[in-house]
Amino acid sequence: MDSIISDSYAVHFNEGAFKALNAHLSEKKYSTVFILVDENTHELCLPSFMAEINGEHNFEIIEIESGETNKNIDTCIGVWEALSELGADRKSVMINLGGGVLTDMGGFIASTFKRGIDFINVPTTLLSMVDASVGGKTGIDLGNLKNQIGVINQPVMVLIIPDFLDTLEERQVQSGFAEMLKHGLIQDPLYWDTLKTVNGLKEMKDHILTSIEIKNNVVLQDPTEQHIRKILNYGHTLGHAIESYLLNHGTKEMLLHGEAIAIGMILEAFLSHKLLGLELSSMHDIKTTFLERYTKIEFANEDIDNLLKLMKYDKKNSHGKVNFVLLKKIGEPVADIEIPVELFKQAFAYYKE
């Protein structure tokens, strides 16, 4: 695969990724190379990653606990303290080896430590490869509210090693695939139709490059999300509310990001039909495609009421209004759509049918 040039950095693939990394480390001669891992990537990815690094470098490994529940300021404080204790300075670099939670948080930690040190992202999940790899969004959750604290800051480079995906459980793979399907829905009807026929991780790997290119093309036009970049949030307004609600419910099972976003895309397809005239056949196509891959979740009326309250904290809102990205048709999104309250419960009723 060829490298993809993003804003101020490149996304490198496979052997080219290690070639670019080794050249960069040799040139920069960092005082310390910190590698941020969780317990999973420490065991399953770090050994093979280290085996590909050439030259003599001063390495330090910092491990955090995996999972969205640890994407918070307390974890950041622990890493900042570890960096200080291990002598990190502004000539250090941090390599974030993990999924989207780790790369989001690692990027935020590096961007704020001593007012910013270099960081390199090595996404190890399908979700982080096709979503978190491009755009420079870093951040953490505030309580049960997703991604409320953070900055947009670009990494030095991003390295995509598809073999790391072989370490994932099937559920994690499907979570990432939801974002790939979203790329088709917002930009490319033919890509959407192609992905609907994809079966298994081997076939998914063949389309990683296309998904990254789609997101990168959008981000390059709008790095700080003032206009067109908003379309990447299709399915995320309701999806993030669902993810946040279940994350802290206590008795209900948590959903992975892509699982929650899949529900959000079904709900927002219904809203698209009602408000923008998305064809009935397209609405049903979206619902059928996602329900074939993702388990349907039961929402009581009380759950729905609580979800709607959570939406007011969505970071895409402005002037007290909840703003949605909807589809006029597949491949033609429209941003900043305000939804009449009565349509939300109708959308959930459609999901339940």
TrEMBL record:
Keywords: Cobalt, Lyase, Metal-binding, NAD, Nucleotide-binding, Zinc. Its EC number is 4.2.3.4. GO terms for molecular function: 3-dehydroquinate synthase activity. It comes from the Bacteria. The keyword tRNA-binding does not apply. It is an enzyme of class 4 (lyase). Residues 62-174 form the 3-dehydroquinate synthase N-terminal domain. Pfam families: DHQ_synthase (PF01761), DHQS_C (PF24621). This is 3-dehydroquinate synthase. It comes from Maribacter confluentis. The lineage of its organism: Bacteria, Pseudomonadati, Bacteroidota, Flavobacteriia, Flavobacteriales. The gene is aroB.
